Predict the structure.
Amino acid sequence: MDNTFIKESLAEFIGTFVLVFIGGFSVVVAPLFGLLVPAFAHGLIVIGLIYTYGHISGTQINPAVTLGLLVGGKINVTKAGVFIGVQLFGGIIAAILIVVTMPEPAQIALLGSTEAFNYGQTVGVLTDDYIWTAAIIEAILTFFLVSAVYQSAVFGKSSNLASISIGFTLIACILAGGPLTGASLNPARSLGPALMAGELDYILPYFVGLFGGGALAGIFHTYVLNTES
């Protein structure tokens, strides 16, 4: 296997692991500090990760972003498949470590009870009873995020500030959608915590929304708002 491809895949694994670990823990403590914590934790870590690993793999760290790049012809099928695989795996490993490093006594000390421990899941008030409405919202928010990736990073319209554009878009989407759906915008961010919580009922609808929003953004910005020419 090509050494460059190995490095790219490893960067995607590490980057997604860091995003889910930081993002998941920010949701764990959100009941104590409010919505601003997960919103800014996710956005700021994405900005940092883009500067850290962007020169290696592009810091996609999100299967919906990778699919958006695939349908737009910016990445081949083999690379997209491997990237999505390592991204999902990185998210699962991060979710495992969130649980391992928060034993029940720590959960009680921090949150007052083990029932208050939320595993860092990306769920909101719509998730249980209005799951497909939640999925539509996730699709729209993911469209916004992948749009920022295309115009600011892929097409290079934000120069060295692409990470700021993407990170701030993520912050805004979480501030708007967090209470409603958890504002995942990322299949890897949702899957790991859901597995650890043993609550997978919402994953398929969320995946439909997340991957659908990413793919639509890839098609739209490639064939309608392409600014490369």
In short: Residues 3-28 form the longest helix (26 residues). The chain has a mean pLDDT of 96. Residues 3-223 form a domain with the Glycerol uptake facilitator protein fold (CATH 1.20.1080.10). The two ends are 34 Å apart (CA to CA).
